[in-house]
Amino acid sequence: MESKKQALNPAEDDTAEPAMKRSCSSAGDAHGSSKPSPVQDNATQVLDRRGDLLLVAGEGDAAVRFRVCSRAMARSSSFWETLLFEDDPEVLTILLRGIHGDLVSIPKTLSCDQLLRLVVFCDKYDTVGTLRTFWELWVKQADPGPLELKTFVSQLWIAHTLGYYHYFAGVLVAFLSHLRQGKHDTLVFGGESGDEVLNDDYHLAAVGLEPDQKVRGRYKLFIEAVDGPSHAMDSLTAIAGDWDPCCRSQDAKTTARKLCDRAMLGTVHCALRSSNLCSRVLCNGDDSWLATRPENLDDFLVLLETVRTDAIAEAGTACWKDHAHCAPWDSVRRKDVLRRLLNSVMNVVYANKDRFKQQQRKSG
What's the DSSP call for residue 341? Predict the structure, then answer.
């Protein structure tokens, strides 16, 4: 007992050499008995001048040391006494500054990739609450990066882990607006870098996460988020029948072809694009979407119903008459598909409402 107490007391001498711990992936054996790679003194970041513990992240020339207080680490999470750290000095720096109260040095903006890595890291060690002051600010100001499948998956993961269910639902709607039915019953995402085929494992693999169904049911959540829309898109194709994916209109103008593309992808796609939901969700904090987005689930469902109604109304406008042979479905069946597609979004959010609230209590 005495030795444990002594180990947790910070060194009285500022120059005393603290204990050193490394990531398990960097150690020579399971007990970490091998010596850490040499690190230059100028690579040591001092979070606590009297800190009794040195943490080393990274390998070789990229290795970074952190001098911290073991008692502060233990207070922040019980995991710190038994688990070691990932080799990601960037996110570790941010978390350690939060634990030691150095809030001034914490960056006010992060990229979507940085935010994702930090969320995954904090969630793993149950320290999401440590940075609760910053999560909302980071989410609002994060630069999402290119319009790709990985961007959407990253944002969905961040929103779910932090419990931001209204943000999750908004990103999911934007995500659906980029999906279309592909060959052999596949679902295709159209982004800036071209088409990407969606499959069950890709949702997590795209952001470097293992598709483990036992991890708090989050893998199941992603399957639900895509399976429902996928079934609706299957129905969309079945209703259309064996249609030629080319414009049959006599009008070869660009405008006519754009309208035709919207018709073949379904009126939901058209309505979502006309509402600019996609561009507003994937933006920085200066955009009006973030200032006016729904703050609760009920408000968001009202927004979804408005989009659904607009889509049905748009299906009956005159511009569709020229493309009757390109998308030969009657309005009743089209309405049914719209209802099924958007209801799938509502069902995903409703079914996981309690899970979102649980995560939200951690992030504040």
Answer: H
pLDDT digits (tens, 9 = 90+) for 124-154: 788 899 999 999 899 988 877 777 777 887 8
- Find where tokens 């993961």 sit: 157
Q: Where are the alpha helices (DSSP H) in 243-330?
A: 254-265, 267-274, 277-281, 288-292, 297-314
What is the domain extent for residue 16? 2-77
Q: CA 308 to CA 310: how far, in whole Å?
A: 5
How far from each other are the two terminal CA atoms of the chain, in whole angstroms?
Answer: 36
Residues 164 and 71 in one domain: no
Among 56, 77, 98, which residue terminates a domain?
77
In a domain, 36, yes or no: yes
E-strand spans in 6-71?
Answer: 19-22, 44-46, 53-57, 64-68
Look up the pTM and report it.
Answer: 0.51
Radius of gyration of the chain measured on its C-alpha atoms? 25
Last residue of a domain, one of 77, 94, 121: 77
